[in-house]
Write a structure and sequence with these properties.
445 residues; alpha/beta; Rossmann fold; 6-stranded parallel beta sheet; 44% helix; 13% strand; binds uridine-5'-diphosphate-glucuronic acid
């Protein structure tokens, strides 16, 4: 099938490449000309493991093209995906102006009835607004809209986006007519033929809600375990063992029960805020989500409190922060917990050195005064403490003896509970872990 993907960010580019891999003829459309030029040359706009190879292979096979001209993408497309950004406005509601512009682009350039598929995460009932935008544009051009609107939410994670899209846990399609359902079923049939997963066919509003409910639930699960961590710290218990034992219950599950710095990234913070706002607009106070947000903000305060306790004054100390990306496997620093931590440490007068395998260029402007270390060794060498903020494999695999040898003071703050604390302690290091009994430096003094 011929498909247009409007907006080639993380979701759009991955969707475009994976649809092409399943045999569709896809054009990625974006008004960022520099981004389109780069993609035409085979250069990726962001780091996503495996996506570069897939994009290049599909482009070479002639199934994937890129353009900033709607006239090259929209005419003839049976399905046009809207994958544009929905940033948060000052009041917490999502800014949907790019979604409306994308709808207008389809209305202006489509030459036959097109199924307009929302993939951007949007508030429930946005489908109706898109339909209205299509109708108004058509009317302005002296005709009537024959396009249909469906919701086809995306559940991919950054860092595993290709795998999540090629082999999803479920495909959700919300449509209000048989015809639109039939088109979308035909689009996803090649995926369903090679990968066995539930296909949830529902109405547009329900599909829109599934996405927000899923992300809000996962974020709440993280805040729940972070609250349990706070209780464990006060009670002298261990949150990892609590989470493992809870996770054995299939009704709970172990995934997303890792206590740490809380959630960041471009999705959870924005979606929790948006869902709270949407519910409020509909007359329901979803207070649980406000608490999810509060606990998440609190989680970011944990590492500096530990450093203060273990180092006393921070003003004349050097702290090595390992990881700035919001999670491993990505160079994305949007709402990354590490950024708040670095800011707080700097505000207390600490000298901060940071390292990340891929994300450092993305914080250059934000922290011009912070030392961006070229490698882990120079980041750690002579620092008074190390703070593990993002659990990249490269850091998790560091030999404990190496840490002990490089640090000036033997202080380790593991904000992701990713290191083997016993192995670190065996090297004489003092280790603070999330949701664990508090440790003292030089016990016995
Ligand atoms: C999230 C969802 O997992 C995807 O299903 C969804 O499609 C995507 O948002 C989206 O809406 O586009 P992503 O933002 O890539 O994906 O990241 P996650 O892997 O979900 O992690 C989010 C944050 O939660 C990270 O900061 C991570 O460190 C944190 N986290 C995750 C925890 O603190 N503890 C955990 O147990 C799990």
């Amino acid at each position: 099938m011929k498909v247009a993907v409007i907006g080639v960010g993380h979701v759009g580019l991955t969707t475009a490449a994976c649809l092409a891999a399943d045999g569709h003829e896809v054009v990625g459309l974006d008004d960022d000309e520099a981004r389109i030029d780069d993609l035409q040359e085979g250069a990726m706009p962001f780091y996503e493991p495996g996506l570069d190879d897939l994009v290049r292979a599909e482009a070479k096979a002639g199934r994937l093209r890129f353009s900033h001209e709607p006239a090259e993408a929209i005419p003839g497309a049976e399905v046009a995906f809207i994958c544009v950004g929905t940033p948060t406005r000052a009041d917490g509601s999502p800014d949907l102006s790019a979604v409306q512009r994308a709808a207008a682009t389809v209305a202006t350039h489509a030459q036959s009835p097109t199924v307009v598929a929302e993939k951007s995460t949007v508030p429930v009932r946005t489908g109706e607004r898109i339909k209205q935008a299509l109708a108004l544009e058509a009317q302005a051009q002296g005709g009537a809209s024959a396009h249909e609107v469906v919701s086809n939410p995306e559940f991919l994670r950054e860092g595993t986006a290709v795998e999540d899209t090629l082999r999803p846990d479920r495909v959700v399609v919300g449509a209000d007519t048989e015809r639109a359902h039939a088109v979308m079923r035909r689009l996803w049939q090649p995926l369903l033929d090679r990968h066995d997963c539930p296909y949830v066919a529902t109405d547009v509003r329900t599909a829109e809600l599934i996405k927000h409910a899923s992300n809000a639930f996962l974020a709440t699960k993280i805040s729940f375990i972070n609250s349990v961590a706070r209780v464990c710290e006060r009670a002298g218990a261990d949150v990892e063992t609590v989470a493992d034992a809870m996770g054995h219950d299939p009704r709970i599950g172990r995934a997303f029960l890792n206590a740490g710095l809380g959630y960041g990234g471009s999705c959870f913070p924005k979606d929790v805020q948006a869902f709270l706002h949407i519910a409020g607009d509909l007359g329901y106070d979803f207070g649980l989500l406000r608490e999810t947000e509060r606990v998440n903000r609190e989680a970011r305060l944990w590492p500096v409190a530990q450093l203060r306790r273990l180092l006393w004054n921070l003003s004349d100390k050097t702290v090595a922060v390992l990881g700035v990306a919001f999670k491993p496997g990505t160079d994305d620093v949007r709402a990354a917990p590490a950024l708040d931590v670095i800011e707080e440490l700097s505000a207390e007068g600490a000298t901060v050195r940071i390292h990340d395998p891929v994300a450092l260029p993305n914080v250059r402007d934000r922290f011009p005064e912070v030392t961006r270390a070229e490698d882990v060794t120079s980041c750690l060498d002579g620092a008074h403490a190390v703070l593990l903020a993002t659990e990249w494999d490269e850091y998790v695999q560091l030999p404990p003896a190496r840490l002990a040898q490089l640090l000036a003071y033997p202080i380790v703050v593991d904000a992701r509970n990713a290191w083997d604390a016993d192995a670190l302690r065996a090297q004489g290091l003092t280790v603070a872990r999330v949701g664990a009994p508090q440790v003292e430096v030089l016990p016995g003094l």
